[in-house]
Amino acid sequence: MTKHITHWINGKPWTGPAPAAQGRIYNPASGQVAGTVDFATSAEVDAAVKSAAAAFPAWRETSLVRRAAVMFAFRELVREHTAELAGLICAEHGKVTSDAAGEVARGLEVVEFACGMPHLLKGGFSENVSTGVDAYSIRQPLGVVAGITPFNFPAMVPMWMFPIAITAGNTFVLKPSEKDPSASVRLAELLAAAGLPDGVFNVVHGAREAVDALLTHQEIRAVSFVGSTPVARHIYQAGTAQGKRVQALGGAKNHMLVLPDADLDLAADAAVSACFGSAGERCMAISVLVAVDPAGDELVAKVKERIARLKVGSGDQPDSDMGPLVTSEHRDKVASYLDSGVAEGAVLAADGRTHQVHGPEGGFWLGPSVLDHVTPQMSCYQDEIFGPVLSVVRAASYEQALAVINASRYGNGTAIFTNDGGAARRFTHEVEVGMVGVNVPIPVPMAFYSFGGWKSSLFGDTHVHGTEGVHFYTRGKAVTSRWLDPSHGGINLGFPVNS
Ligand code: NAD
What we know:
Aldehyde Dehydrogenase, Chain A, domain 1, Aldehyde Dehydrogenase, Chain A, domain 2, 2 domains, 7-stranded mixed β-sheet, binds nicotinamide-adenine-dinucleotide
């Protein structure tokens, strides 16, 4: 029995005409086709947007407290169904179940943040700015907004967006990754069970055609995108050309700088966890270790020792540390960097192709690898590999290490490992990256701070969730009001000034 995933439009599964195209959903651990997903054309996208547009006026008028109450109910339902959601993610993405549950937990933090929307939408009020005149500010929803999300966090990344957007009074159309679409549909069902009116949250599946239909639809006011840099750039350019508000988060190459005074066991543990968790398919994964002399040799030895012990196997096995990659094409592309790295002069210190695998033969397996003595000119350094490959760059000094990081075209996350508070302070000040960890390898901000990178890791000027997320999904209005004792000073064609 294979599953069939279709769109979620106006509070129910889509029952319109048969799909023009479908995609395959794989179980990456077995390599088997697990089901199909319908691909939307502009007709289904239009139906979803129309349903969201029709739901907007009533949802916008629903009191703020009632909107927040739906989010509170949704929070309870997601908590209750965490294991089920983690199972869906594990089955289609391949990541281990505990990691999938962690992604749901991080998404829940944003739901909890959105429950505080009555506080977050408070404006300012200034009494008597002129005699008998008050001034105040309010923020109002935009209308229909869209989210386009990547395969690597099929629950968390949508939850970065829709809880804030809909609690602020918008209606939403989500286009999740076609590779692992089930979690988004389950979230839609849980929203409906929480009392969200039909049409406020819709899901359309598909690939480029569906995305282009969203980008050109005149009813869509804003687009949040998370995915690879070339697509993020395209979304930003095409969306803003259509007059839409766009935030487009792109790819990454995250460096971890290790100073010689650091606790090298702590640094090695952190590097292995942050590089190989979720098989490296995380936008905040550490993919480059920058070891400042003389830390390099000892650090690489400690990393090798640790990865030899990692158990690669099916994500649903409780003792697996690392699952498969998402598709066979992606696995092959990631593995190709091991050959190109060596051809360009790197040293293959650990070869994931020979790592023992505890899982079915047809799975999209690749064990953890380390490329040492990588230089910034090599393609394994330049490209986002997005897999279980750690590149080690050797640097002679802090200054040289910082220069490497700042020259990268990506600026998503970074970390420094040191016991020197002054060095850490200097690094956080000088590094040109959006999210920085000090002895913390994956510094994903909490929901009440905003998440976003610099340079080619983000197009647009607003990060997701936190107060920047609230700002992105609302627009400001300033009101100047005179009620009491209106002064009838007669006609005055001069520009109003305070008195
Ligand atoms: P992707 O760019 O291939 O796909 C992202 C979304 O865009 C999907 O919904 C996909 O269907 C759609 N899409 C793909 N190609 C398209 C095209 N040509 N035109 C229009 N839409 C298109 O990314 P992915 O492989 O699903 O996810 C991995 C990437 O996402 C990595 O680069 C990773 O760094 C990045 N990512 C970034 C962040 C962040 O916060 N910066 C978070 C998670 C993932």
